[in-house]
Amino acid sequence: MSDILIAVLGISFMFLMSVLGGSIVFLFKKDIKEKTNSIFLGFASGIMIASSIWSLLLPAMEQSSSLGAFSFLPSAVGIILGTLFLVVMDKVLPKLLNRKTKNPQKSMSSTSKLFLAVTIHNIPEGLAAGIAFGNALLLGGGAVYSALWFVIGIGIQNFPESSAISLPLKEKLKSNKKAFLYSVLSGAVEPVMAVLGILISTALSSLMPWLLAFAAGSMLFVVAEEMIPEAKYSEESHIAGWSLIFGFVVMMILDVAFG
Known about the structure:
The protein has 259 residues and is mainly α. Helix content is 80%, strand content 0%. It has helices at 3-22, 34-63, 73-97, 110-139, 143-173, 176-199, 201-204, 208-231, 239-258.
């Protein structure tokens, strides 16, 4: 099997797992109850926090190790920039999309914020996969198999990430098909960015720490501002907290085992 074919299969697997994770919404025929919604929101919050740490921030710091004592700098700046990006988008995007409405100042919906944050998170993951395959194709000698295991790890993580996001979207959109479509569109960013990463892997490698931290900042901001407060709506006061912890532990295990 050629190295290029292995890269294609790896990238396809990564996207397929996102699609399968998003398709879990079709298992729910009725609206999600408040308690159930709190569970899924808490679980998704835990997954996103763990992904921000193990999949994004720790790799960003490792790739910035040449800065010595200042290896934290790309991560710190990237988190702030990712947060500022969503704040600016919250102000600018509604004005662009609602020019013909009576209330152009309306804030971006929580659905849009969640979709945007997850999409941004998928950009550096796709780039990382593409860069891994790009470097492996240049090195040859079986290096592509190491890159394949890395991408398989991303794919395995994509399943719980995508399912944990699509279920809250179902509750917000009141539509299985729309929630699934949002999930697939968000996941489709990864193979596109993976191909881009392969094409310009050497040029983007120096920017990866900043991109990873940028994605982490956007995710953490959405979790803190939107998901955790909504998860606490349930009368079961501790269920959202336990769900967050469980989601965090599950994603931590996946990140460490397959990262």
